[in-house]
Specification:
Length: 288
């Protein structure tokens, strides 16, 4: 798996030790050192450092894992599991961006856990907002016994690259192309062609929910980037969720997703459930 790191304050601050100090006056060296420390402090505050990867500075290993949105000192050995590594690599490939490594390890990890739980319940797995297929390509890669199972997968999307108008809940070509949305229906279909019992449903939600017989649902992943459509779909599918089924909301508590946060909280109140806020910005609901 490829790993790409952004330059951190540590890289800059301590690169001075490798310089030929005789070539720089004290004032220049001091300015560069202080500039590096300021950047280090800024990055620390924003959880954007990756100090765990730096050798030779043991006292500075603050995080075991850190990205622009999440940092932890705790055990993250799940990332070394061959199953997880294969699943995460599949997500990277599905993204179809050779340089992509957005630090989504925990988001993928949590989706794998939720989907695995859903598979054991025996119902079907649904994704609203599949895009290029990152999450479900990871889920299916992590299920080596998929061909021996009875679960079905239904993936809903317009499979269009047009950017989303979050006010209307529809994509709009006038807004340009999104760099992360689906390239085309055929491109996403190709991502999933090696697995059986995968149905791609093309068109605008929630209308397309009535085009296929979904059956009982044991895992529902919602990633539509629109509070209007997401709340409508959740309410329509709620009674098809089996007891113990998990709903994973992709952008529930994410930065700039306040409308989705409030809309889903309103749905949860009507349904008599609560939503668990995850540190990744995702939300988790368990069907009673």
């Amino acid at each position: 798996m490829r790993t790409f790191r952004r330059l951190t304050g540590v890289d800059i601050a301590f690169s001075l030790r490798d310089r030929d100090e005789s070539r720089e006056d004290l004032g220049t060296k001091t300015k560069k050192f202080l500039s590096g420390l300021r950047l280090l402090f800024k990055n620390q505050c924003e959880n954007k450092t990756e100090l765990h990867e730096i050798t030779g500075w043991d006292t500075l290993r603050v995080w075991r894992y850190s990205t622009s949105m999440l940092a932890t000192k705790h055990n993250v050995s799940f990332m070394e599991s061959p199953s997880f590594r294969a699943a995460y690599d599949a997500a990277v490939v599905a993204a179809n961006r050779d340089h992509w490594n957005a630090g989504m390890h925990f988001r993928v990890h949590q989706a794998l856990w939720c989907a695995g739980h859903g598979m054991r319940l025996g119902g079907n797995l649904i994704e609203l907002g599949t895009g290029r297929g990152m999450i479900f390509s990871a889920i299916l890669t992590a299920a080596p016994d998929w061909e021996q199972r009875d679960n079905q997968v239904f993936l809903f999307d317009t499979f269009s690259s047009a950017s989303m108008n979050t006010e209307t809940g529809f994509q709009d070509v006038a807004l340009g192309e999104s760099p992360v949305y689906a390239v085309s229906y055929e491109a996403t279909r190709k991502t999933f062609e090696r697995w059986s019992r995968i149905t791609l449903v093309k068109g605008n939600l929630p209308g397309t929910l009535s085009e296929v017989e979904i059956g009982p649902i044991s895992f529902l992943h919602i990633d539509l980037n629109s509070h209007i459509v997401e709340s409508e779909c959740l309410m329509r599918l709620w009674n098809q969720l089996v007891p113990g089924a998990i709903v994973l909301l992709d952008d529930y508590a994410h930065v700039n997703s306040e409308k989705q946060y409030h809309a889903m909280n309103s749905c949860a109140e009507k349904l008599g459930v609560s939503i668990l806020t995850l540190a990744t910005g995702q939300g988790l609901i368990i069907r009673p």
